[in-house]
Amino acid sequence: MNITHAQFVTLPVTDQDRARTFYTDALGFDVVADRQMGPVRWLAVAPKGAQTHFVLAAAEQGFTPGSVRGTALVSADLDGDCAALRAAGAKVEGPDDQPWGRQATLEDPDGNRFLLSPEG
Asked: DSSP secondary-structure letter at 81?
């Protein structure tokens, strides 16, 4: 096999502009694409330097906002990032120690939930 990485993960959102603001301002992601493709707006964001993008897809495209669960994001400073996210108004639970390691949970404005895990 020659698969090298995932290109994108679709995140269903109710308002693409609101989602863009959350992912760029609260999470510090970069906008890697924002263009109209016929009736569809292709809006993708990603952590700096990441190969995998998050496509912020509107409900009109057939997706259910808030339905994403279990995607893990890795942090070089879990406690610091959780504090910064809370200060930015994001919903964060933890970080807590689990039998498999330390982690937190982050929820975007539409209810999509992510695990936040430390590097290593």
From this structure: H
pTM of the model: 0.91
Burial of 105 (0-12, 13-18, 19+ CB in 10 A): middle
The residue whose two tokens read 């096999």 is 1
Which stretch of DSSP H or E encloses residue 86? helix 78-87
Q: What is the secondary structure of 16-50 as a DSSP string?
A: HHHHHHIIIIIS-PEEEEEEEETTEEEEEEE-TT-
CA dihedral 67, 47, 54, 28 (to 10 degrees): 70
CA distance 25 to 6: 24
Task: Write the pLDDT tens digit of every residue in 94-106.
Answer: 999 999 899 999 9
Residues with Cβ within 8 Å of residue 54, at least 6 apart in sequence = 8, 9, 10, 11, 23, 29, 44, 45, 46
In 3D, which of 27, 26, 115 has the Cα closest to residue 74?
115
What is the distance, to the nearest Å, from the Cα of residue 37 to the centroid of all Cα atoms in its chain?
A: 22
